[in-house]
């Protein structure tokens, strides 16, 4: 397991006033040097999913997805107690010894991203991100590999299975609303992304306290390769969205879900909805954590602009391809 040990931030030993050179971002990416807003800072739209005026919900989500590529939802139906349990069991896993966490490490030769580790993208750059993570699928049952689910704490599996049950209902509601916002049948985007075979990939991000948060990033600027990402944060700020040539920090709303439009919905909508460019900063004295779930098409499933949104006046803006091929290009930083 030595391969994974050198890949994780939690296993580092270093001077508490500095960080290793490989974590220092180029100047143009350093949080202290990048532009911020002057005057009132715009806030990411927040939408009440419990609003009985369904047309208003559709309008607000569609507007946010076109203008921001991200929004937060409240009154989403997932019990607050369950979100707290999800956060608690994830936090307890990352507080385990390095040796115990490495029992479910991502194998060095694995083609999957599932498991505990740090390395995600395949590139030759020496720069690293200030984050450790755990990936595993939580739905549908045939896609789940329980060897990457922690057995400690003992309640981890029960809590995550309960969360998956509620999350599927939220995902269906969001995909339906986003479809209606395009003037389509409610099932259009879900079917276009894989229907009942859409895979729910959970990632737990753990960003340890960092002595020089001005020089590094938890996750560098990117868009998600998923169709949709549904994220639970903890109370430590850090998620930033690139809007109008500035980085905007996501305001923490207790028990809200943060919804990212991913690459596949941008493709399916032929560019009407925008995948959000975002990054994560880290804190000096606190550990930041987040629990995104990526809604991904099955590998062999073909995704492209929906035929209903394409005509001679609005030709396809994206290639149609298997999701596994899209993912390969994205992770290896190859052109699509």
TrEMBL record:
Recorded GO MF terms: dioxygenase activity; L-ascorbic acid binding; metal ion binding
Family indicated by similarity: Belongs to the iron/ascorbate-dependent oxidoreductase family.
Entry superkingdom: Eukaryota
Record-given protein name: Fe2OG dioxygenase domain-containing protein
Disordered: region residues: 25-49
Keyword set, alphabetical order: Dioxygenase, Flavonoid biosynthesis, Iron, Metal-binding, Oxidoreductase, Vitamin C
Required cofactor(s): L-ascorbate
């Amino acid at each position: 397991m030595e391969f994974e040990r050198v890949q994780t931030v939690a296993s580092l030993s270093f001077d508490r006033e500095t960080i290793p050179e490989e974590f220092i971002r180029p100047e143009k990416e350093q949080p202290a040097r990048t532009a911020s807003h002057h005057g009132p800072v715009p806030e990411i739209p927040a939408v009440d999913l419990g609003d009985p005026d369904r047309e208003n919900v559709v309008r607000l989500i569609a507007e946010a997805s076109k203008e921001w590529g991200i929004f937060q939802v409240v009154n989403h139906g997932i019990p607050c107690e369950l979100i707290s349990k999800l956060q608690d069991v994830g936090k307890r896993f990352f507080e385990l010894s390095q040796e115990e966490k490495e029992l479910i490490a991502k194998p060095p030769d694995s083609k999957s991203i599932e498991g505990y580790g740090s390395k995600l993208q395949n590139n030759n750059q020496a720069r690293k991100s200030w984050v450790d993570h755990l990936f595993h699928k939580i739905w549908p049952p045939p896609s789940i590999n329980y060897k990457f689910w922690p057995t400690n704490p003992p309640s981890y599996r029960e809590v995550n299975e309960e969360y998956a049950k509620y999350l599927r209902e939220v995902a269906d509601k969001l995909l339906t609303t986003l479809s209606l916002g395009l003037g389509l049948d409610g099932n259009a985007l879900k079917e276009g992304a894989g229907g009942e075979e859409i895979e729910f990939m959970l990632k737990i991000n753990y960003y340890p306290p960092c002595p020089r948060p001005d020089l590094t990033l938890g996750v560098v600027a990117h868009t998600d390769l998923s169709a949709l990402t549904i994220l639970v944060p903890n109370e430590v700020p850090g998620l930033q969205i690139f809007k109008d040539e500035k980085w905007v920090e996501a305001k923490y709303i207790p028990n809200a879900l943060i919804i990212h439009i991913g690459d596949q919905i941008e493709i399916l909508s032929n560019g009407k909805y925008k995948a959000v460019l975002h990054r994560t900063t880290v804190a000096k004295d606190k550990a930041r954590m987040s629990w995104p779930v990526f809604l991904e098409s099955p590998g062999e499933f073909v995704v492209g602009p929906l035929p209903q949104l394409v005509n001679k006046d609005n030709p396809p803006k994206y290639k149609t391809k298997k999701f596994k091929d899209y993912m390969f290009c994205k992770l290896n930083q190859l052109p699509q």
